Amino acid sequence: MENVVIVGASLAGVHAAEGLRERGYVGSITMIDGVSGSVADRPPLSKAALSGAVQFDDCTLRPDTWALDLKVTYRTGRSVVALDTAAGTVTLEDGHELSFDGLVIATGLRPRPAPWLPPQTPGVHVLRNRADSETLREHLLSASSVAVVGGGFLGLEVAATARSMGLTVTVLEYERSVLARVLPDSVGEWFTNVHERHGVEVRTGVAVSSISQTRTGFNVQLSNEDAIYADVVVAALGADPVTEWLSGSSVDFEDGVLCKPDLSTSVPGIVAAGDVARWPHPVTGKSVRLEHWTNAVEQGRHAAGTLLGESYPFSAVPYFWTDQFDARARFVGWVSPHHEAYVKSTGPDSLVVAFGDRGEMQGAVCVNAPKELALMRRLIDQGTLWSEIVDSGEANGDLSASHVGRV
Amino acid sequence: MSLKIILDVDKCQGYANCLIEAPEIWDFDESTNKAILIQEHPAEDLRAKAECSARGCPAQAISVVAD
């Protein structure tokens, strides 16, 4: 292999490049991305960079010298629109073709369009890239109210940041509780309480039916006949894998690129990594696609190894975080609304919940409790029986609960 | 060639990702909200975990070097 193309120059792509070089690969590496210039590290885009606590220029993934040091050729500002696996080429949107003998698919996600919104309405924002965050920040600075549609992680982070900037903030969530895709209602309500305590209005069980522009902002018409006014609207409705450029190629995809356990795809010499990759997790056997920072890092490295002939299953335990106001929430393992939940401790500023399924401890969320998180991780790794978690704090030594109950 | 871990405390933002990746090497001070390096020279068999904690740090506060 001497000619690797990496499609997507964000977190997974950067780590794939580093993973290739670390393993001694000396051939060429070309990274392609539709976004111009060096790609930003995304976590600050909804938090510290959006609020102005840090500069956007300080949120780059790697220093400017990185590409030169690693002998990586950047071709940014033009997306890949087609893949020809037989010829071993990708086509850029300007018609240019690049050949490869190894390909890393790391195209990530794009924000899901809002059904109630004509595209590109000024003042209605999505948030994915640095430019999105910069534009949103500009508008927030001159606005006094914002409606955030979607009470997922991104929506809640934006809501917390906007509130901390002094705006009046309303969160609109279609489900019965925020974070409903990930957490049981009662744990979602804990996050709602955090927001309400800081003055955010959280309205759940409402959909946006339409939106109309006024002289200064927007009237947002809700499914329950109510309407609210906001200077700025943010649509945080989730995001979809960027895979349409694989149409007509032999790479299988369906809600993500369908990978084998080692992150190889249906085509030899092509691997995938990060938000776009779907693979059967060796621990659970279930097909998963994770939109986590740490997952993109580790999968980028792993996919590089697979491309160079290694063949190990990618089996990392999922881990991700979200910061909202002073709540620093950390999630480890498998967490879903369908898991059994056991509250080990709870208070206005902290929360420790264990999640179990099929008789085993499988995941946990810890807010402002990093040491608890390390303990939880160990319990998950050890395959701790769920009954040990629920039945007796003493039986496990460390699980003495200050407040115990099912959520 | 042994391992040496370096923590730039000023860069540390208290993510605690390192503690998750390599609890053998890291502890955490909940009062200062900073990581604590408890094994500056971990054994070779912790190399993978050490490197994992370094690249898993969103603040890029950790480096693993040869000693």
Folded structure, characterized:
The complex is a heterodimer of chains A (407) and B (67). Chain A has 3 domains: 176 residues, FAD/NAD(P)-binding domain, CATH 3.50.50; 112 residues, FAD/NAD(P)-binding domain (3-Layer(bba) Sandwich); 80 residues, Enolase-like, domain 1, CATH 3.30.390.30. Helix content of chain A is 22%, strand content 30%. In chain A, strand 10, helix 5 and strand 11 form a beta-alpha-beta unit. The C terminus of chain A is likely disordered. Chain B has 67 residues and is of the alpha+beta class. Chain B contains 2 helices and 4 strands, in the order βαββαβ. Chain B has a two-stranded antiparallel sheet with strand order 1-4. A two-stranded antiparallel ribbon of chain B has the order 2-3. Chain B starts with a strand and ends with a strand. The chains are: A alpha/beta (407), B alpha+beta (67). The interface between A and B is medium-sized, with 20 and 14 residues.
> From the alpha-carbon coordinates, what is the Rg of chain B to the nearest angstrom?
11 Å
Structural class of chain A: alpha/beta
- How many E-type strands of chain B? 4
* Backbone shape of chain A: globular
How much helix is in the residues of chain A? 10-25%
Shape of chain B: globular
**Total number of helices of chain A:** 9
Any idea of the CATH topology of the largest domain in chain A? FAD/NAD(P)-binding domain
Overall SS class of chain B: alpha+beta
List the helices and strands and how they pair.
The complex is a heterodimer of chains A (407) and B (67).
Chain A: E1 3-7, H1 11-22, E2 28-33, H2 48-51, H3 66-69, E3 72-76, E4 80-84, E5 89-92, E6 97-99, E7 102-105, E8 109-111, E9 124-125, H4 130-141, E10 145-149, H5 153-164, E11 168-173, H6 185-197, E12 201-204, E13 208-213, E14 218-222, E15 227-230, E16 232-235, E17 239-241, E18 257-258, E19 270-272, E20 277-280, E21 287-288, H7 293-307, E22 319-324, E23 327-333, E24 340-346, E25 351-357, E26 360-367, H8 370-381, H9 386-391, E27 405-406
Parallel strand pairs in A: 1-2, 1-7, 2-3, 7-19, 9-16, 10-11, 10-16, 11-12, 18-20
Antiparallel strand pairs in A: 4-5, 5-6, 8-17, 13-14, 14-15, 20-21, 22-23, 23-26, 24-25, 24-27, 25-26
Chain B: E1 3-7, H1 17-21, E2 26-29, E3 34-37, H2 47-55, E4 62-66
Antiparallel strand pairs in B: 1-4, 2-3
